[in-house]
Amino acid sequence: MLAPSGAVALVALLASAGSVWQARTPWPLQPPAPVPDGRKPKLERASELACAQCHAAQVAEWAGTTHALAWENEPYQEELQGRKKAESCHGCHAPVALHGALDALLAGKPEARADARHFGVSCESCHLATDGALLGPTGAATEKHATRKGASFDAEGSNALCASCHRTTVGPVIGLARDFEQSAGAASGATCVGCHMAPRAEVAVEGGTRIVRSHALQTPRDPAFLALGFELTLAHEASGPALRVRNLAGHRVPGLIGREIEFVATASDAALTELGRETLTLTTESYLRVDETLELALPARTARVRVLGRHHDPRVDKPVTFLERELGP
């Protein structure tokens, strides 16, 4: 799929990734530290949400996410100008409650809210049932409102909830959930939430414990999180040395038109004499498939390789370094 660049041979290898998903669970997620890209740092007026009265910490986390800013995102609003049937985009940027009767997710593309679109993908989008109850992983009772345990907060259900928007390919956005649904990760029980919502605490519940997760979503804007999507190894085989880059993300990378992921490999011999540099560039036209490995051929005497990973974000002026690693003895 990837075309050779100069004398550098890129060989796509089919990888069996089930063991990888099992070995790296849970992800070593830290609070996200996204690189500034010109968008607002957080949604204004988030504290006006009724949910904030009791769930201030969760609302504060959510307020700085792309979900909260989905409607007010300036590039989104600019894309709508002059676009035919612009309203067809609104359902994923300010969706109604995504649940149907008996906690079954609505089929097809979400509809847009008639009002309060300012709040983007809001608390109600994911937690409100059609009968007015608030859905969660346990359904713990409260005097504030009706509650119920929601199937969409189980492993399989949470994937379906996310996929209701993220299966759609439109504009610069690629429907990555379609990739994930066919991945080894999904088959082995991985979830969207498990990778994108960091665990904050483990609490006791009836019959055991459950993980409380952060509502500050992890995205490729955070260099440390982006680095978790790749496994790098230095291979020495009969055909010669090679840098292997394996996709652990659960979907293709990159996943947004305009993004580029670049790996610059500097090869050295046993005496640490530099032998040369080779580059692997991933774009949405030449991407790394889910569960796939690419090989980057290196000079014959390579004993050590220094890898620099750079993320070219169309909203950021300069490439962002997300990975620096040395491989070899």
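The above is record 1. Record 2 follows with the same two-line structure.
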Amino acid sequence: MAVRYPLAIILGFIIIIGCLFIKKKKEKYKTGVKLANSSFVRELPYFQKKLKEYKLFINITKVICLLSIIVACIMLARPFTTKNVSDEEYNRDIFLCMDVSASVDELNLELIENLKDTVKSLKGERFGISVFNTSSVTLVPLTDDYEYVLDVLDEMKKSLQYTMDKDLDIFSTPDYLYTASYLANGTDIGYEERGSSLIGDGLATCVYNFAKEDKNRTKIIIMSTDNSLAGDPLLTLKEAASLSKKEGVIVYGIGIEKMNEKDQADYENAVAITGGKYYAGKTSLVKNIVSDIEKTSKSLLKKKGEVKETDVPTIPFILLLLLGISLILLNKKVIP
């Protein structure tokens, strides 16, 4: 432990030394009446006992006052401790790329719930959210504002719950129209000309959400889809996967449970191109899938060494408080 202002302690010792050398002047009685035969009283055992107690308490009081000065000067000097802190940050960007077709709702709901726990555990990583159907919409650009990400995930979860709920009473809630359309709003633009579920375009758009300058960061996409193409995309899923590999983006694909064999094979092969992994999407396994993605993609740790100074006034403050309480108690002994 060290102190920021050592001169304060030196000043305290000077004050204490000065106090020790101050001599008490002998009092001379100028007024009052002298008491005859007082020597008899001073010789009484009871008087002797009380006089000793009085002198003891006076000396203890002096010691406490001196200690209080020392402790107060120590606090004034601001004691502190130094500690070498090594902050670890995962040099990684993660994008959630979510197909908002109705057939993926159940999987998406489970995925969102588990990703919330993932976001809470992030440290230095950036997270983004992109949703697609015909067109893609970026709900959250890459950010390390995890509170904002969690708020958006909560809104997405609520939107899915509203659209999946068949209870007619829910339609009367004030925020139904806004919340129900929150997740899919803007993703159906161009539907009449191009159709829907344009998976390749959704993935490619998400890839371009990563900054090209961040070459040293690990880039991850967690993608959920049914891989059921129902339109005319600009890029096929395979072409989008090749683009991902070119840009250094790894894709972890999660598919719905009821996916036909051809769509699943195409999805699995496309993900493999990027160096990622495909997961058959049973909602009960989503938690394990997210955990597996976390383990396999944590890389490029960035460490920053830093010396941190922390004030430690607690012990001197408690000592000063106890000394003050002791003075109050002794005062009652010395002055009845």
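The longest helix spans residues 45-76.
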